[in-house]
Design goal:
Keywords: Cell inner membrane, Cell membrane, Membrane, Transmembrane, Transmembrane helix, Transport. It comes from Enterobacter lignolyticus (strain SCF1). It is found in: Cell inner membrane. Pfam families: T2SSF. InterPro entries: GspF/PilC, T2SS_GspF/T4SS_PilC_CS, T2SS_GspF_dom, T2SS_GspF_sf. The chain has 384 residues and is mostly helical. It has a domain of 205 residues: Receptor-associated Protein (Up-down Bundle), CATH 1.20.81. The chain has 16 helices and no strands. Helix 8 packs across helix 16 and helix 11 packs antiparallel against helix 16. The radius of gyration is 30 Å and the shape is elongated.
Length: 384
């Protein structure tokens, strides 16, 4: 028999095990891996828990069963700890709140609403679907942006390699002939000389983002600078904006359907956003609504949302169907961003191929153009 237990101290872990009437033969300490606290695992857990609740199991039984079946000892210990808290009388939302590094505030807020309304399994299903939809969208956006970045980096590497290593060899060969070089070749040779001299600087500029990344992450201003840069790049800005709007409206719709007050839903949105600029926008809307402004007016005053957003929110607020309108907006921006991400590679591929092909083709022509001139010069000398 083996198992996992969450404890801050080995001696305390031994006491907890013996208190259960178990005599451990060995006790091994495992390091906590933050990489295992991924959002995908949390959403999968919610879906499995909702299924077990619908099957008639209690929360404590469901968590114990999930703990026994989970392949990760780290998750086994966490789920077992939550099951113990439930057995001691704590609600699931409170048990989740004890693990903020694992469960974002949206999780305990939604679960708390489910506990209050008696629709816990329904809230778990909605939460799992919302999180899975956001994960699929984030993966698609990342995949769409990865392709052009890889192509550009490869093109830059080829150009630097040709200008820094290949062209200088051709230059040495051409210098043995006392024949004037074509203008294009002279221009490329000058570029090659410059690249050769500035190669350490160019290599440093290319590698600097990777080397400075830890420092930039520790800087409090870097997330703001990053957000400002992304908002000024047309295609990236559209993708990022669609992803953020889909996330905001999906979380708000989920909160409304679960019976969470709108202000608390805005707080959940704010804590789940990675972009500081959007967190600031949501905080402004929260403060405006708290002061008595209509919801649609607060969204309009923020200046960050489209007329479609403001119109549908106003309609939903007036008709009492705000949750449905928020869900419609979430689906609209989700589909729009999926469509843009699907088409991004198809739109950029011919442009990137044309640009990189043109640059590399120019370099190749510049290298071999003197060969034809040398042939003409030799033919002219032979005729003379």
């Amino acid at each position: 028999m083996h198992g996992a237990l969450w404890s801050t101290d080995k001696a305390l872990a031994m006491q907890d095990i013996q208190r259960e009437g178990i005599i451990p033969l060995s006790l091994k300490r495992d390091a906590v891996k933050a990489s295992l606290w991924r959002s995908q695992h949390c959403s999968d857990l919610m879906q499995q828990l909702a299924t077990l609740l619908q099957a008639g199991l209690t929360l404590s039984e469901g968590l114990t069963l999930l703990s026994e079946q989970h392949p990760s000892a780290q998750w086994q210990a966490l789920l077992q700890d939550m099951a113990v808290r439930l057995a001691q009388g704590s609600p699931l939302s409170e048990a989740m709140s004890e693990w903020p590094e694992v469960f974002p505030p949206l999780y305990p807020a939604t679960i708390r609403a489910g506990e209050m309304t008696g629709r816990l399994e329904h809230c778990c299903f909605h939460l799992a679907r919302q999180q899975q939809a956001q994960q699929r969208l984030a993966q698609k956006v990342a995949k769409a942006l990865r392709y052009p970045l890889v192509v550009i980096l490869l093109a830059v590497a080829v150009i630097i390699g040709m200008c820094g290593f290949v062209l200088p060899e051709f230059a040495q060969i051409y210098r043995t002939f006392n024949t004037p070089l074509p203008t294009l070749t002279r221009m490329v040779m000058a570029l090659s000389v410059w690249v050769e001299r500035a190669f350490p600087l160019l290599a440093g500029l290319i590698l600097s983002p990777l080397l400075l990344r830890p420092l930039m992450r520790r800087s409090g201003r870097w997330p703001w600078w990053k957000a400002a840069i992304l908002r000024r790049i047309p295609v990236l800005a559209a993708l990022r904006r669609g992803q953020m709007l889909s996330h905001i409206f999906m979380v708000l719709a989920l909160s409304q359907r679960a019976g969470v007050p709108f202000l608390q839903g805005l707080e959940s949105v704010e804590t789940t956003l990675s972009c500081p600029w959007w967190r600031h926008v949501i905080r402004q809307i929260h403060d405006a609504v708290a002061q008595g402004k209509p919801i649609w007016q607060a969204f309009e005053d923020s200046g960050a949302f489209t007329p479609l957003c403001r119109q549908l929110i106003r309609t939903g607020e007036t008709s009492g169907a705000l949750d449905a309108m928020l869900e419609n907006l979430a689906h609209y921006y989700d589909e729009q961003t999926h469509h843009l991400a699907d088409n991004l590679a198809a739109l950029l591929e011919p442009v990137l191929l044309a640009v990189t092909g043109g640059i590399i083709g120019t370099l190749v022509v510049a290298m071999y153009l003197p060969v034809f001139h040398l042939g003409d010069a030799i033919s002219g000398a032979g005729m003379g």
